[in-house]
Specification:
391 residues; 6-stranded mixed beta sheet; alpha/beta; Cytidine Deaminase, domain 2; 3 domains; single chain; 15 strands
Length: 391
């Protein structure tokens, strides 16, 4: 099969729609369940490239949670401690390394991951399928699925959940093309390898870049390769913890990614972990309530009595001072940027979210000021020398 007809394109009025191989060769995918749409396939193919590269770069199984052609989360399969198991709602589950990767990818920004499209680097196993089954998701792409996994996934959406198997040996053509307004664009594929050598040019006084930081910077940079630009990614402990995508200003990328990283860490505060939820509140509603509780508008909700819908008793306000005190414990965070930092304000904002390791292209006329700011905070920064824009 070299062509697959789709229901419609990005929107219902955009018909006809299909995916096909222009050279007449076979499509590298098989749809095992459901009827994936145009945006589903965009997310699936971008997500597959991301996890394939993460696996190659780290040797660990990888997963990503995609929404609207940018990742909401990406991670490798490192074990989860008790706190992460709790904030990711998987404390009652057995977790294979691949399941750990997806729990991390989904859990980093659960608000953005709601209704995601999943990509897995390895054959989807029972543990991973059990996690996917209970989440609100549009579909999954992987190089294969065990029989137990398929049986579990068939229980979603009355058997209409989108399950795509991709040929992991497929290699795309070196040139890629797309049309905009009837005009065809052509470019060489982004085949840049994210490896240790790319992170070897450390330009700060602090030259220390431990193995764990190298892994996190690889995760950040590979994630950025498939994130709509401008983009910045914060990573820690084998996963992206905050992604700022598609912003016109670099510092807005950093602020957005930093605020998501802060929320990820605030969820681990005992004051949040011990919120008195009612027993019948579903996970998405808990996620929404936690997001509100962490946010500035919670005091307004207290005044309105809205807390009664989800909590058994009125939680105390999580004050700005308490949040800052807790966030001061977040350290050794890695940050990747898809283009250079034009001003040192990005470094100042990164410091507030515990960033210690940075990878960025360099090349700004103000590189010296950015390096100076890193030196002031004792950060270690590598210049990769290459941009990672993705559009």
């Amino acid at each position: 099969m070299n062509e697959l007809e789709l229901k419609y394109g990005c929107n219902p009025n955009q018909k006809p729609s299909r995916i096909f191989m222009a050279d007449g060769s076979e499509l590298p995918i098989k749809v095992l369940m459901g009827k994936p749409g145009y945006i589903n396939f965009l997310d699936a193919f971008n997500g597959w490239q991301l996890v394939k590269e993460l696996k190659e770069a780290t040797g660990l199984p990888a997963a990503t949670s995609f929404k609207h052609v940018s990742p909401a989360g990406a991670a490798v399969g490192l074990p989860l401690d008790e706190t992460l198991r709790k904030i990711y709602w998987v404390d009652d589950e057995e977790l294979s390394p691949l399941a750990c990767a997806y729990a991390r990818a989904r859990g980093a920004d659960r608000m953005s991951s709601f209704g995601d499209f999943i990509a897995l680097s390895d054959v989807c196993d029972k543990d991973t399928a059990k996690l996917i089954r209970r989440e609100v998701s549009d579909g999954v792409i992987a190089p294969g699925f065990t029989d137990e996994a398929l049986e579990l996934l068939a229980q979603k959406k009355k058997g209409n959940y989108n399950v795509i198997q991709i040929d992991e040996s497929y290699v795309p053509a070196e040139l890629e093309r797309k049309q905009v307004y009837g005009v065809t664009f052509e470019q060489g594929r982004q085949n840049l390898k994210i490896d240790d050598a790319l992170l070897s040019n450390i330009v700060t006084e602090n030259k220390d870049m431990p193995k764990e930081a190298i892994i996190d910077l690889k995760i950040a940079l590979i994630t950025l390769k498939y994130t709509q630009s401008n983009s910045v990614c914060f990573a820690k402990g084998g996963q992206a913890i905050g992604i700022g995508a598609g912003q016109q200003s670099r510092v807005h990328c950093t602020r957005l990614a930093g605020s998501k990283a802060d929320n990820w860490f605030l969820r681990q505060c005992p004051k949040v972990l011990n919120l008195p939820f009612k027993d019948d509140i579903k996970r998405p509603d808990r996620d929404n309530a936690i997001d509100v509780y962490i946010g500035e508008e919670y005091e307004d909700l207290l005044a309105e009595g809205a807390w009664q819908r989800v909590f058994t008793e009125k939680p105390e306000v999580f004050t700005r001072e308490e949040k800052r005190t807790w966030l001061n414990n977040m350290t050794d965070v890695a940050l990747g940027s898809d283009a250079f930092f034009p001003f040192s304000d990005n470094i100042d904002r990164a410091k507030k979210s515990g960033v210690k390791y940075i990878a960025q292209p360099g090349g700004s006329v103000r590189d010296d000021l950015v390096i100076e700011s890193c030196n002031k905070y004792g950060m270690s920064m590598a210049f990769t020398g290459i941009r990672l824009f993705h559009h």
